[in-house]
Each structure stands twice: as C-alpha cells, then as structure tokens.
From TrEMBL:
GO terms for molecular function: ATP binding; lysine-tRNA ligase activity; magnesium ion binding; tRNA binding. It is an enzyme of class 6 (ligase). Binds 3 Mg(2+) ions per subunit. Pfam families: tRNA-synt_2, tRNA_anti-codon. Mg(2+) 2 binds at E424. Mg(2+) 1 binds at E417, E424. Its cofactor is Mg(2+). It comes from Bellilinea caldifistulae. GO terms for cellular component: cytosol. The keyword Disulfide bond does not apply. PROSITE patterns: AA_TRNA_LIGASE_II. This is Lysine--tRNA ligase. NCBIfam families: lysS_bact, PRK00484.1.
Length: 509
C-alpha cells in the first residue's frame, strides 16, 4: 500500500507508541456506556436532582472515533462518535497533568479510536461532556477520513470537507458510512424494514424457509442467469434468478404459507433500479388468489410504514405519496389505452400491434413477440406515470407463463404488478397449478423465443413432477427489498441502498 506524506506521519506516530511500550491496537476495550446511554443517564440524574434527590456523579468509560479536536492552551475539547451518536470530551491539565495532555495532542489524530474514562458534566454552553480522567488508544487510523475537518461552531458540528462524490462513496462504502451519518441511517432503516416484513408474515402463519441458490435449472422469472460449474460433480449450475419454483414445491408438500428473503442473481444490465444481485421477498399462499394478495400487499406496506417510519405518507423523488389503502386498481389494457391510445385487445397478433405502434411513431424491436411489445409500451409510457400506489392487473398470457388464465379469457392471466413513484415494486400471480397446462406453457415459451432470449423458460421436469402430485390453488408474490428501501428512504438509485453495489472497473469508466 503506497502511503501519502500524511499517512507516513501517522505510521511514524504508531511506531513511536510501540517504542514507548504502548500498543496502538490493544486487544480489549472496556466501555461502560454508549454515548447515548451516558447522556441519558446524566439527564436522568439532573431530573432527579430537580425533584430533590442528591446530585450524584455519573461516571462512564466511553469508546469511539475522534471526530473533532480543539486545543486551547491547557485544555482540549474533542468529540467522539460511536454507533449511538456523538459526545464531547474535556481534557484538562489539572486532572491529566501536562505530560498526558501533551501526549494526547501529539499522538491522537482525527479518525483514531479512543477509550476515555471520566465524570459527566454540563458545560456553560449546555453540552453534556465527559470530563476525562484517563484515556488510551484503541486503534490508530493511518488514513485520514475524507470528512476529517469538522469544527464546532456555536455548539453545532460544521463539516468543512465531506465525502460527496458518488463514485468514491460506492467504492469506499466503509469511508462513506464513517463520515456520513445519514448513510448509516439508511441501512439501519433497511434492517428495520426487513425485520418488519418478517414480523408481518410470521404473525399471519407464514413459514420462513431457505431454498437453493445453486440450481441445476433456473426458472421462475424472465432473466438471463449467471452460470458456474461444480468441478467434482462435473455439472454446470446456475445462480438462482428466483425462488418461485422451489417455494411452490413446498406447497405440494403441505407447507401452505411459505416465504423467503434472500439474494437473486440476474446477468443483466445495471441501472438506477437494477443491480446484478439483489434482495427479494417471495411468498406463496395456498388457497389465495391475486385479489387476496393485493389486499395483503396493502396491509404489509402499511405495517412496514407504521413500524419503521411512523407515517404512511412519504416523500420520494419530489413526490408526496400516500400509501394508505385502498390503492388504485387499473387493468393493463385500460392503462395502455390512457398512456398511448392503443387497445391491446384490438391487436391480438404481433403484426397488428407492431403496426399500431409504428402508426404512433413508437419504435418496434424487430422480431419481438407480442408480449415483449406490450412490456415495452408498459415500461416506456405507462410505468413512469404511476406515481401514487397502483395495482396494474390482468396481463397477456405470453409474458406470464406461470400464472393462471383469467376465467373466460384464454389470452389473459391473473397477474398484477404494484407500482409506486413511477417504479415497479412488486409482482404477483394467481399461480398456475395444472401440470399439463404448465408443460404446454414451457413448450410454448421455448418455441417463441430465441436460445439467448431472457424471456425463454427452460423446461423443469422435476417441477412438473411436483405439480403432478397435486398443488393447491395459490397466490404468489415477489418484491424487491432494495426498491422498497429506495422508496421508504427517498433514494433515487439502488446503489444508495446496497452496501456494496457492483461497479465497473475503474479503467472502463
């Protein structure tokens, strides 16, 4: 690792500490309080004293990263930060002695981790502070953090340098988290959102399960997989693109409400809402249909908002969005009529639909099947208009090979997608449970698409065998956790809500 001049100075300090018999990276730390706990205990003591109790000293040993330092002759103020927040340290020559105060000022830098022991008090400006009686190094920071120049002005921390460049933030997420508290908050909310989903589904009798990530046959979604190889088995395997076909096997086995939260992998392009690996929720619910799943979706999103945000009205990408049910329900056919003036029911063939699109100067991809043309109309013209929560329902069969037909309409299936903020959030079906019809659909998809087309579904004989034992009617649901976190934290790119997003090599940027 090539060091800068400043890093060389810090390394020299670290070596000098060791020469003095002081370990700059000790094995143990002994904090008694977090910063927040110390402040809370001191405030409670003050309240008790106002109510007539004795004024007792609050002693604490704190540990954290040094975020600011101000030296004023025989006293030094510093702020340290731990996972709970910031607190001020007060170091004075009277208690520490000239040698120890000079030692702190010489060897401790911004970004270092320190353990400080002392008694809490409130300064004349009203800030709760630890009056330090002893301290020691916990970890010497060799590289200064990008936001190392913090200054306290009128009791407020003013940041003079910050890590704001998105490219650097995503590549060095550790530094991003260290210097940007709002980024840490995004990922705390993400954890709370996932926890709330589990609470909601567990309370309704759903069983959380785990299914294979390495699969001999990929399926359950329209996507190109990543391929790997098992050397001992001499077998090509695929990273899963969906949990669906395995979860529905469990319905056959008598587990009537199952869900999984985990990683899917799709070998596709990246965008503000796509990452090659992403976190997905899928559940399958025996004896339900897509209408019941719509209702449960509304209830789940409301529960998450109440639990994590405390409000059902959110801000996203400049829009105020009301998540209170009922959400708007709009058929795909009607939505496209409103968005582009094309009634897909009047264009039952690829040729007819393509002609209608060309008549409106809408580009048509050569050799695209009818389903892909409809999907393009939806993505380019209708989806961006769906800002308030909307269930878009009843899709063409040829882009939904795992969904059950709408009664009386062999060309349409019972499928919905949920859209919020102009972005697809979730996808759900009344699931197909007829094994002979499913086999027919697989064969149709294999013929209709080219070998490399991501819409092409491979035949899964074992899944058909499972269905042949009898699968209960059921409703299935999938939702991208990353997009949900984007929505609920008002982040416009998926890279803001994934700790370590995939990025191009630097020399390709």
């Amino acid at each position: 690792m090539e060091l800068s001049d400043l890093e060389k100075i810090r390394v020299e300090k670290m070596l000098k500490l060791r020469q003095q018999g002081i370990e700059p990276y000790p094995t143990r730390a002994h904090p008694t309080h977090t910063a927040a706990q110390a402040i809370q205990e001191f405030e409670a003591m003050e309240q008790n004293a106002q109510n007539g109790a004795d004024l007792l000293p609050v002693r604490a040993t704190l540990a954290g990263r040094i975020r600011s330092v101000r030296t004023m002759g025989k006293i030094t103020f510093a702020h340290i930060e731990d996972g709970s927040g910031r607190i001020q340290l007060f170091l004075r020559v009277n208690e520490l002695g000239e040698e120890q105060l000079a030692f702190f000022n010489e060897y401790f830098d911004l970004g270092d981790f320190i353990e400080a022991e002392g008694v809490l008090f409130r300064t004349r400006t009203g800030e709760i502070t630890l009056h330090v009686h002893a301290f020691r190094m916990l970890a010497k920071a060799i590289s200064p953090l990008p936001a190392a120049k913090d200054e306290v002005v009128d009791g407020q921390v003013v940041r003079h340098a910050a890590l704001t460049d998105p490219e650097t933030r995503y590549r060095q997420r550790y530094a991003d988290l260290a210097v940007n508290p709002e980024v840490r908050e995004v990922f705390r909310k993400r954890a709370a959102i996932v926890r709330a989903i589990r609470e909601f589904l567990d309370a309704r009798g759903f069983l959380e399960v785990e299914t294979p990530i390495l699969q001999p046959i990929y399926g359950g979604a329209a996507a190109r997989p990543f391929i790997t190889h098992h050397n001992q088995l001499k077998q090509d395997l695929y990273l899963r693109i969906s949990f669906e076909l395995y979860l529905k096997r469990l319905l056959v086995g008598g587990l009537e409400r199952v869900y999984e939260i985990g990683r899917d992998f799709r070998n596709e392009g990246v965008s503000f809402k796509h990452n090659p690996e992403f976190t997905q929720l899928e559940y399958y619910w025996a004896y339900a249909d897509y209408e019941k799943v719509m209702t449960l979706t509304e209830e789940m999103l409301v529960y998450i908002c109440d639990s994590v945000l405390g409000t059902r009205v959110i801000q996203f990408d400049g829009h105020t969005i009301d998540l209170n049910p009922p959400w708007r329900r709009l058929s795909l056919r009607q939505g496209l009529i409103e968005a582009v003036g094309i009634d897909i029911a009047e264009h039952p063939t690829t040729e007819s639909l393509a002609e209608a699109m060309r008549a409106r100067n809408i580009p048509v991809k050569p050799d695209a099947p009818r389903g892909k043309l409809i999907d393009a109309l939806l993505g380019d013209f209708l989806e961006p208009t769906l800002i308030q929560p909307t269930f878009l329902y009843d899709y063409p069969r040829d882009i939904s090979p795992l969904a059950k037909n709408k009664p009386g309409d062999p060309t349409t299936v019972e499928r919905f997608e949920g859209f919020i903020g102009g972005m697809e959030l979730c996808n759900a079906f009344t699931e197909l449970n007829d094994p002979l019809e499913q086999e027919k659909r697989f064969l149709e998809m294999g013929r209709a698409y080219e070998e490399e087309d991501e819409e092409r579904h491979p035949m899964d004989e074992d899944y058909l065998r499972a269905m042949s034992y009898g699968m209960p009617p059921n409703g299935g649901f999938g939702m991208g956790i990353d997009r949900l976190v984007m929505l609920l934290t008002d982040r416009r790119t998926i890279r803001e809500v994934i700790l370590f997003p995939h990025l191009r090599e630097r020399d390709e940027d």
